[in-house]
Design brief:
CATH architecture: Alpha-Beta Barrel
CATH topology: TIM Barrel
Radius of gyration: 18 Å
CATH class: Alpha Beta
Helix content: 40-55%
Number of domains: 1
Number of helices: 15
Distance between the termini: 14 Å
Number of strands: 8
Oligomer: single chain
């Protein structure tokens, strides 16, 4: 199969992990921001996490640099547009982009201004290319429950106009869900859909709690349900969709190599899986590359790919009109 030519749906992509190195250099030069290097090849060494990362925390260190240039409305709009532009080049038809608004308020932007700027960048791309998108607001698990309430409240006005869901991300500790029960419950009341990073490190029980305590409809990663029978059972029975990111999982040592990745085994056992990049820059990847890597290991059939595409459309937080448009692309 020619994976580059096939239509694609991506549901798990972090904005701050997907910047072009050239853009970081360009903005830094204009705004006199210090970088480790202004040479593209050298800078990429700082931006891309190695396959030999020791942990998720080491992987997450790669997000500090991009954040330096993501503190103005113009830059956020440009960076979002470029991510969608990059996605169109590999035939991504629908893209859900997530980011943590509070990380982009360091130079005075309000949360609402941050969200509006990202939406505008997405709309710019939609008007120019054959791609559609939505935004997921991430709350940092390393921050307080009050910070999550702030994101939920300030993002509320954008629901149905670019924003579709709430997410919890960053370092994963055991039983993190308890801390965020109330803000996520409020988000659901307002109409946010819910996807939660869980089971990315060796804690399958976090997936169980994300579904039971937070009402997660989708799980970011979910690799470690393989080691937790209760989590596996609830994901399978409730058809909770896993947003799987193979390269990222190898980098963070969720799995040691691609051949160990459970994505194909889950798929064959009736668990709904989707292909995603997680972070195009930090993981030095694309959707086509992720699909190609999985195919190399597990020899995907056309029916396998078609089913995963359909699962992805159905699991998306898009409206029905957008879903029908995505289905018509295949």
């Amino acid at each position: 199969m020619n994976f580059l030519a096939l239509p694609k749906i991506e549901l798990h992509c972090h904005l701050d992990g997907s910047l072009r190195a050239e853009t970081i250099i360009d903005i830094a030069q204009k705004e006199e921001i210090q970088l480790p290097s202004f040479d593209k090849d050298e800078l990429q060494k700082e931006l891309i996490a190695p396959l030999e990362c020791e942990s998720l925390d080491e992987y997450l260190k790669r997000f500090a640099l991009p954040n330096l240039v993501m503190q103005s409305k113009e830059n956020l709009r440009r960076i979002t547009f470029e991510l969608f532009e990059d996605a169109t080049r590999e035939n991504v038809k629908y893209l859900e982009v997530r980011f943590a608004p509070l990380l982009h308020t360091l130079q005075g932007l309000g949360v609402e201004e941050v969200i509006q700027s990202v939406i505008e960048g997405m709309r710019d791309a939609e008007s120019r290319y054959e791609i559609k998108g939505n935004i997921i607001l991430s709350c940092m698990r390393t921050m307080s429950a009050e910070s999550a309430f702030e994101v939920v409240e300030k993002g509320k006005k954008f629901l149905g106009n670019g924003v579709v869901a709430i997410d919890l991300c960053a370092s994963e500790e055991e039983s993190f869900c308890k801390k965020f029960v109330d803000p996520i419950a409020l988000a659901k009341k307002y109409g946010y859909r819910v996807t939660i990073h869980a089971g990315e490190t060796g804690i399958g029980k976090n997936v169980l709690e994300a579904v039971e305590m937070l009402g997660a409809e989708r799980i970011g990663h979910g690799v470690f349900i393989k080691d937790c029978a209760e989590a596996y059972k609830i994901v399978k029975e409730r058809q909770v969709v896993l947003e799987m990111c193979p390269t990222s999982n190898v980098q963070t040592k969720a799995v040691h190599n691609y051949s160990e990745h459970p994505i194909y085994k889950f798929h064959k056992d009736g668990i709904k899986v989707t292909f995603n990049t997680d972070n195009r820059t930090v993981s030095d990847t694309t959707m086509a590359k992720e699909i190609h890597l999985v195919n190399n290991e597990f020899n995907l059939s056309e029916e396998d790919y078609r089913q995963i595409y359909l699962n992805s459309v159905e699991a998306s937080f898009a409206d029905q009109e957008t879903k029908e448009w995505c289905l018509a692309q295949y």
